[in-house]
């Protein structure tokens, strides 16, 4: 059967799933269906749906640096992405001896991007608006990359959904996949069964289920290459006058403390977070499972008290005059985190090319949403069609041995979520 005639079912309508759908449709695939567990889309608790996501080329791995540079060029296509992308610039901070920061700077410089070293307080002060009160940044250096910023995550997903539909793709909400239909004892996959009893048959099933991959398919032999982890964020509400003072600030990313903060949105909300790694083990197999506003409406948005303190400490080290403002919202963003930070894109080796993985965004995939053929979507489509180079195929292989990752990612310690330590309203003041 020609690839273009294969009936393809993509499970998950986030960054990986929708990008893959668009890429396949643009290549002439004619029967592409996307299903998602959420009853409304974009999913309220989806990994790819949020106020904002950092769009940066600043990686210690040149593969992602180049890929992100291509994505940023596409983000600027306003006909497709409207005003979802905001080129505020990204300040990358770190200790003077940070290897990640040094490598990222060299990669950005080699690509000819608009970068400026920030080796002292005077240089740092000049990249922020004069009205913004910033910290002294003691014992820290960095650089500004003007070719980057942030994207309105929910808006980008919504636009991509419309693009998929315009190309003939079908998207079904409220279809939570709970079982892969497979032939006998083999892993040859012929479809998916959903929680409501409905069945979607397919020649090819693409799992783009993000942090729900492990819990949705607990019997799937996948090895120990990824795990659902929760990352903690918080928001402060600025007054219009305060927001005007900080609106033209760059995104700030500290690769040493793992703290990051965005400029205010049009609703004057300033979001910030610390790259943590909470797990929530569920069931006999202790599979880490997301805990969100959908599964736990009353407390699903709460984060641990310790992270409230960490985030406030990070805010103090960037914008000290805002540190006394209360946090008006928190959220635990769940990602499918690989143990080396590389994505998982490839066929299950025992599935006879009927089961494809497109997951493990590891908290840094959203920026690759757009391109002429979708950056991530292009990679997944190439993997499906057997066109990935051997080097890239090995980098993303389902059965690979995880490498050591980078010094930024190694700082993230996975810790089991203790529900008795969640924040209270008083902790947010």
TrEMBL record:
Belongs to the MSOX/MTOX family. This is DAO domain-containing protein. Keywords: FAD, Flavoprotein, Oxidoreductase. SUPFAM superfamilies: FAD/NAD(P)-binding domain (SSF51905). It comes from the Eukaryota. It holds the Pfam family DAO. Transmembrane segments: none annotated. Residues 8-370 form the FAD dependent oxidoreductase domain. GO terms for molecular function: flavin adenine dinucleotide binding; L-pipecolate oxidase activity; proline dehydrogenase activity; sarcosine oxidase activity. Its cofactor is FAD. It comes from Mycena venus.
């Amino acid at each position: 059967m020609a690839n273009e005639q294969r009936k393809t079912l993509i499970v998950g309508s986030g960054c990986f799933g929708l990008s893959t759908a668009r890429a396949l449709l643009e290549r002439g695939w004619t029967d592409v269906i996307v299903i998602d567990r959420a009853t409304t889309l974009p999913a309220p608790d989806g990994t790819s749906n949020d106020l904002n996501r950092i769009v940066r080329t600043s990686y210690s791995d040149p593969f992602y640096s180049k890929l992100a540079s291509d994505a940023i060029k596409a983000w600027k296509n306003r006909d497709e992405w409207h005003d979802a992308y905001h080129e505020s610039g990204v300040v990358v901070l770190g200790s003077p001896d940070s290897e990640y920061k040094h490598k990222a700077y060299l990669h950005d410089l080699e690509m000819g991007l608009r970068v400026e070293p920030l080796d002292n307080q005077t240089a740092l002060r000049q990249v922020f608006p004069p009205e913004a009160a910033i910290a002294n940044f003691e014992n820290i250096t960095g650089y500004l990359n003007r070719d980057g910023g942030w994207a309105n995550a929910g808006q980008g997903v919504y636009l991509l959904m419309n693009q998929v539909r315009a190309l003939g793709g079908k998207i079904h909400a409220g279809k939570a996949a709970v079982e892969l239909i497979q032939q006998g004892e083999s892993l040859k996959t012929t479809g998916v069964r959903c929680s409501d009893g409905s069945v979607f048959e397919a020649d090819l099933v693409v799992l783009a289920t993000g942090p729900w991959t492990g819990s949705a398919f607990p019997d799937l032999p996948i090895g120990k290459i990824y795990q659902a982890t929760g990352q903690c964020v918080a928001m402060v509400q600025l007054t219009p006058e305060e927001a005007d003072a900080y609106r033209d600030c760059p995104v700030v990313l500290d690769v040493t403390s793992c703290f990051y903060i965005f400029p205010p949105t049009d609703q004057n909300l300033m979001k910030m977070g610390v790259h943590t790694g909470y797990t929530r083990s569920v069931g006999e197999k202790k599979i880490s499972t997301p805990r969100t506003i959908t599964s736990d409406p009353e407390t699903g948005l709460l984060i641990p008290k310790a992270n409230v303190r960490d985030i406030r400490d990070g805010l103090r080290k960037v914008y000290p005059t805002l540190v006394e403002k209360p946090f008006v919202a928190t959220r635990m963003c769940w990602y499918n985190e690989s143990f080396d930070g590389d994505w998982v894109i490839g066929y299950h080796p025992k599935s006879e090319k009927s089961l494809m993985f497109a997951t493990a965004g590891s908290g840094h995939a959203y920026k690759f949403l757009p391109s002429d053929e979708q950056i991530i979507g292009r990679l997944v489509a190439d993997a499906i069609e057997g066109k990935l180079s051997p080097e890239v195929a090995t980098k993303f292989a389902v059965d690979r041995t995880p490498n050591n990752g980078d010094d930024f990612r190694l700082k993230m310690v996975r810790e089991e979520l203790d529900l008795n330590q969640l924040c209270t309203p008083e902790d947010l003041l």
